[in-house]
Records
---
Amino acid sequence: MNSRSLYGAIEAGGSKFVCAAGYGPLEVADGWREVIPTSTPEATLGGVVAFFERIRKEAGTLAGIGVAAFGPVDIDRRSLTWGCLLATPKAGWSGVSLVKPLQRFGPVAIDTDVNAAALAEARLGAGKGIESLAYVTVGTGIGGGLIAGGRTLRGMLHPEMGHIQVRRDPRDEGFAGVCPFHGDCLEGLASGPAILARWKVELRSLPATHPAIGIIGGYLGQLAAAIALMLSAERIVFGGGVMSDERLLPHIRETARRQLAGYLPVQARAGGFDRLIVPPALGDRAGIGGALLLAQQAGKQRPEDTTG
Ligand code: ZN
């Protein structure tokens, strides 16, 4: 028998739910990980419950479960709809509770997927030893999570920094943007679908001389500068499918440096912009790792905090 506490984790995404169990944030045992496609809430959540029932049978009770969810999702514990997905374009999922089916297994904590990834990178990855970190993912959408004082930032909803307005690159005039809410917000200009809408191919299929790389890197650099100014984050991690093109990061750093114009003491610190703006250190382990850290938090809460 293992005397250490066992935790459960779910990375709930628009195309798949990854379920896992482990004794620590980066310790997921073989056979204790399962990928369930996101179809209907009944089928997907039914699969999730079956997974944790198997874990309980094989390994005993869970000390806590952490959920890292796609959004928008209600993460306010005082709210009547805590743990429920809000108005999502994902058919059938609006209003569905991700928490209720899990509460039979133990205390549950829920946060956004990007906040969870930020938590994992801050504690175990690119942000070890610092207090404030932002994690930005650039893929189908653009999302960002924040750690301040060692905790994830949440408020009215959760950070939605992908939807800020950015200054238009003169080489990119005339493109309306693809955000259904704002048109040419950052996500509308620089997400994977926005790249496809303009250039018909993924960024990495374009030659180094193509202006697209500088245009997209420039928009993301404006976000990095805004994060540095508003939140004073000591580390800004850029991950996600679009960022797998390594040519972007230098453009992001350069735009942020130019836009900040020496106003913040970035270059006075070791590593300067190369150390402020970085790729993820944990790769695709950040999501489940963050969910397991949330599970540990849930396990530590007093019983009166976990009702509701
Ligand atoms: Zn938008």
---
Amino acid sequence: MTLTKKGETKPAPASWGLTTRGGNVPWEYAPAPEATDHVQIRSEYGLFIDNEFRPSRPRASFEVINPATEERLARVARASKADVNRAVTAARRAYDTTWSRLPGSERAKYLYRIARILQERSREFAVVETMNSGKPIKESRDVDVPLAAAHFFYYAGWADKLDYAFPNREPRSLGVAAQVIPWNFPLLMLAWKIAPALAAGNTVVLKPASTTPLTAYLFADVVLQAELPPGVVNIITGPGEIGMELVKHPEVDKVAFTGSTQVGKMIARAVAGSRKKLTLELGGKAANIVFDDAPLDQAIEGIINGIYFNQGEVCCAGSRLFAQESVYEPMLEKLKDRLSTLRVGDPLDKNTDVGAINSAGQLAKVEELVQAGIEEGAEIFQPDCQLPDRGFFFRPTLFTGVSQSHRIAQEEIFGPVLSVLTFRTPEEAIEKANNTPYGLSAGVWTEKGSRIFKMVSAMRAGVVWANTFNRFDPTSPFGGYKESGYGREGGIHGLGAYLDLAPSGTNGR
Ligand code: NDP
């Protein structure tokens, strides 16, 4: 029914497709693709060293594709060991001759400039991010790009206030930062790494993931537009072994890595015994705990956002749902209903909720773990949605009847797959939530403030969200316990990771 101007009710027009029993809306959304004609992706990208795009030496390149269409987007240079050396040398020169000598207030001006340019070019960045990573445009437009700009704004504010940020310390920049980032939030991870490094007075060499280098190279354009001195930001592309060459380089003073626990451990071993400062942001298997007094509909939205945001390719994804037994049945029913409304498909479509998995390799990993879940006896539920013919898509999935020993409850799937488990008491929830080698994030849903405090202090997780999930803010530190890594990014903690913080009077000043 609809309300007329006079306050009378009349039947809704048939074209609205509303059913009287509140059933599924029987019509399809019209396609609403974001325009791509304002975006220019070059056919080839060189390495970005000393403010110039240069071919690798020897010349070599690899292909970058759109995971939603499997079409080629560009070729990018494949760096060699000699290129790593060139990039680090450029960063060292820039550190010694310009960047470390600039007052913080001058560094801040550059960072503010970058932040503003990111805002001005946000539409372009969002489209390129979506085309290259497969994430829905509404997420790159509303989350990734605004948050990336926010990080530059935030750290710009600290650049000239380091002494106030760390009282009784003598904050000093470290030198050259080597930064290796993953494919799930390519621009945002770049911002998490580059903004605090530059604010603290370091120069950087960044290696993006091989499947998602395009927004990093678009960012190189921003570096030019902001007129940063040459060598302050260098970006090189190449396989994992090039990442290893970079972090091992003797002229590197600081290493920051986000990615798999396996590679994180290799990097930790490689830099052990050196003077390099290291932060590792690795995998996760977050518990999202819902008590029976939680507002259920709100919790359902939080659970959906927790695991299906960015196709579940999120290190802090709420991939293990713990439902209190007394609400398990109604919650499951609501969850399945909500899952059935998620729209999977063209990431460039503004109505898409779940886009493409980032690569064929990642899709194979998700499929393998889902198969393991079925074979181990868990019960699978997937909505009956049509997947595109091409591209790396996977249906949003949930498993019930999951036991703690199942691989789907233990291993990071990094896909749109939720394992549902149950508990009776807060103590049982805590024990089960902590029963994982990871410790990155967690969520608690309850109306009781005292219970929130109890749960938060008992859970071994770097970030615990209460009555929300996947909230990010540049002012807030983020990082893990156990195999989720060490060190913090974001906030003052993230700034400190790029500084030597010797107590006052001991740094020779
Ligand atoms: P990786 O850890 O392999 O990749 C992350 C970054 O590290 C990429 O830039 C990668 O380069 C680089 N890299 C790879 N090998 C090395 C190495 N030996 N030395 C230095 N750098 C290296 O993650 P994957 O892409 O292989 O994903 C595998 C799994 O890792 C996922 O399924 C997921 O479970 C987890 N993961 C977790 C992330 C998180 O945010 N915590 C992010 C990404 C993945 P290149 O792309 O060229 O291989």
